[in-house]
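Question: Now follow the chain.
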Amino acid sequence: MKIKKVAILGGGTAGWLAANHLGSELKADEEVQITVIESKDVPSIGVGEGTVPYIMKALKRFGISEAELLVTCDATFKQGIKFVNWLDEKKHGDNSYFHPFDVPYPGGFDVSLYWNAHENERPFDEVGIQARICEMGLAPKRKSSGEYAGDLSYAYHFNAAKFANLLAKNAQNKFNVKHQFATITGANKDANGYIETLITDENTELDFDFYIDCSGFSSVLIDKELNVPFESKANELLTDTVLVQQVPLTDTDDINPYTTATAHKAGWIWDIPLTNRRGTGFVYSSRHMSDDEALQEYAEYLGVDKSEISPRKIPMKIGYRKEFWHKNCVALGLAQGFLEPLEATSILLSDFSAEMLARNFPRHFSDIEPSIEYYNKVVTYAWERVVDFIKLHYCISDRDDSQFWLDNQNEATFSPELKERLRKFSIRPPQQSDFFSRFDMFDDKNFLYVLYGMKFKTKAAKLSAVEKKHCRELFLSNDNLVKSAPKALLKHRDWLSGLKAAYNKG
């Protein structure tokens, strides 16, 4: 029996990403109809406002104009993350380092061995040029750059609600995805546990063949109906609560071309600049900090009295489903799981998982069972390695000013894979071959920036005179590129303002 009717329960970023991925993949089959079902009673969480360059692949595939994305979603460029106070302040000052998107191999050459032997000369993020470009406040593109192309790698910050609307318009106009409003309260299942129909709050039934649960934290189908267990990662990632507050920007305020992640004694604070506001979030562990103390520290970060802010409080259940695809239902987005957004992982995992589903979508009911095991294995691997990468930021810190940081450094909170990798990287720098799966969301390049940005020690290796000379020449070449950058690249806000003016005029 052919699968013809596909329901996506829930809109938001995850639901409409899924609609576009499936619509793009299945557009040649006129018998397949995709419907997004949204409830007017359930608001979107809408705090996932940062991305990584992986998102470009999907946007280009969907045929979305980059200019439209930037202008209509209050978007800015993200060239990486600036980390502040993630190490012992007494030893390292504010120990700011960048995790930029440029590859830490100047000229394609691995300079990490040279840097290890001369690590006091400069920060590791200066093996490339992007961290310094970020500090100058420059855009990653020229005026003449084409869409989804620039002098430097980049991703985006954007208004999540407006981004979901852009995805919705694209899915409906390009891929004939249907959209309806209904509040789903449950489902009817057959004798084998497959979902047959959805039940609305008006006690009507909606009949489909395949179901994608993008219903957020409520996980209406994968949890409440199919009872798929949740794999908690609270023993590895200790933060469990976030306070969210938006801060207005004026038209003359500078816009950083990066996310700022500032650590505090029980977690960290994100600071994401859009064109008209900053989105901020105070992430903390309720086991290590009271709500009142969190509010006080948050207000101090924002430079206001705590009586002047009323942040939204969101509990974070850290972990993921033991199965992402069960019977004729796949969970995506927050229904699939949640990790703190330290490296913009929420949209990344939603995008990756939706793309995987589209590439492996069953055309007939008989195709479902053979597809499930592979999909769950791949997506589980991706989630596990993302957990490890986020944990890396905490566990190699030398902060000892609170129990939160000491607990994070306890090896009992490390996964076996992370322990093995850290032992290996204490001997030599990460290499591409250490990340043998194409489903590693973060690889040697990402690990290099975080490890050495946080003063992780690797045994020094001997280099020949020729290798040393070549490395010095590469660093000098990068220094010259940085010096010339202001002549080639505009200030971030100026570039965005110029695009907006041209877009509105044209």
Observations:
- The two ends are 49 Å apart (CA to CA).
